[in-house]
Each structure stands twice: as C-alpha cells, then as structure tokens.
Amino acid sequence: MSAAIKYAPRYTIVVCGAVPSRHLEQAPALIAEILSPSTRQNDLTYKRELCASRKVGTYLIVDPDTKTVEQLSLGKDGGYETVAVSSRLTFTLCGACEIEIGVESLFSD
C-alpha cells in the first residue's frame, strides 16, 4: 500500500492509495494541523468538526507555542476521541501502516 504526503504551510495531509491526479477523491487518513495565533480558534473548532464530518481518521493538532500535540481518532459514533499522548505519537493509517513519531522531534530546530 502506498501513501501520498502533501505539505502546506500550516498542515500536512496523508492520503492512502494512489496519488490523486487532480484532487482528493477520498478522505485523508491523517491531517496534522499546525496552530497559529491568527487561525487558532478556527482550527480548534470549525476545522476539527469539518475533518470529523469528512471522516478523516486521525487529526493531529500541533501547538508550537506549548510544544504539545493533541491526537484525535475518529470514533464509531463519527466524532473524535482524544488519544493520550506522552513523548511519542503512535497511530495506524490505512489499516496496516503503523507510524510512531517522537513529539520532541516535531519541535526541534
């Protein structure tokens, strides 16, 4: 199984399967949102709800000010459930791809 990674200034999207030629035709497996002062409230409310409604499996909220990450996984009820994060993020994408990331590495210079 392959995954395509697209980078943007304030977020990263991971889509499982073939790289789309023009636009996404399925929900991303993961979106990592980088909070900024100007969009913080929108990211924590509207975008979170939007990602859940579009069935994005894992939504990471990365806060560079506090150097923390909130990991949300789509629950059976269609809403997000918070996953406890310590020093490492661990999640499975696309049913078989297990990813582990050190939280500190996200904030290193």
TrEMBL record:
Q: What's the protein called, per UniProt?
A: Putative restriction endonuclease domain-containing protein
Query: Which is an annotated Pfam family here?
Result: Uma2
Checking PANTHER family in the record gives: GLR1098 PROTEIN, RESTRICTION ENDONUCLEASE DOMAIN-CONTAINING PROTEIN-RELATED
Q: Which organism is it from?
A: Stieleria varia
Q: Where is the Putative restriction endonuclease domain?
A: 20-87
